[in-house]
Amino acid sequence: MVIVGITGGIGSGKSVISKLLVAMGYPVYDSDAEAKKIMQYDLSVIKALQLEFGENTYLNNQLNKQHLAGEVFGNPERLRALNAIVHPAVKRDFQAWAKQQSNPVVFLETAILFESGFNSETHKVILVTAPLDIRIERVVRRDQCTQEQVMQRIAQQWTEEAKALKSDFIIVNDGQHSLIKQTEKIISELTQ
């Protein structure tokens, strides 16, 4: 089985590529979505988060995202503590998921593939890129936030240039290049 990471900065269009791959019949593990589920239902993760960040981390059995964001935003040490709890659980979940797949090529979508060390789980990496102004516009529209908030989130991720140096394939998602053709070319190379 070939495990291919899909990464890119916020607003680059990773999810668009993932949906395209699913439509083509390939299994894609969405680490953000799965991390949210794990933080909501995995009792060992819930207990660890409450120990680290306080009982207010969960209200009425629901993750208190505002409280957690307040604890980690702008505090790299607290963010590392959060990641030390969540990332190993996501990695275990991904490994179990991958074992259940029958397709010889599976995909792992995560914005922080390199930052989290998750690239150790992959054989190849696709970087999805887009011009900064397009990325900002997409995220402002999607998340109903300000440009400043988007820039703060971008500042916490590796640059596209740094990710490109460690990636095997690059998909340009600027509205000018065909995503289908770029994706089909990569699939063709992966399945030779």
TrEMBL record:
Any one GO cellular component localisation term in the record: cytoplasm
UniProt keyword list: ATP-binding, Coenzyme A biosynthesis, Cytoplasm, Kinase, Nucleotide-binding, Transferase
Entry-linked CDD domains: DPCK (cd02022)
Reactions catalysed according to its record: 3'-dephospho-CoA + ATP = ADP + CoA + H(+)
Pathway assigned to this chain's UniProt record: Cofactor biosynthesis; coenzyme A biosynthesis; CoA from (R)-pantothenate: step 5/5
Entry EC no(s): 2.7.1.24
Subcellular location per the Swiss-Prot or TrEMBL entry: Cytoplasm
Single GO BP term: coenzyme A biosynthetic process
Residues at which ATP binds: 11-16
InterPro entries tied to this protein: Depp_CoAkinase, P-loop_NTPase
UniProt keyword annotation of Cytoplasm present: yes
Superkingdom classification of source: Bacteria
Xref: HAMAP family: Dephospho_CoA_kinase
Known role: Catalyzes the phosphorylation of the 3'-hydroxyl group of dephosphocoenzyme A to form coenzyme A.
Protein name as catalogued: Dephospho-CoA kinase
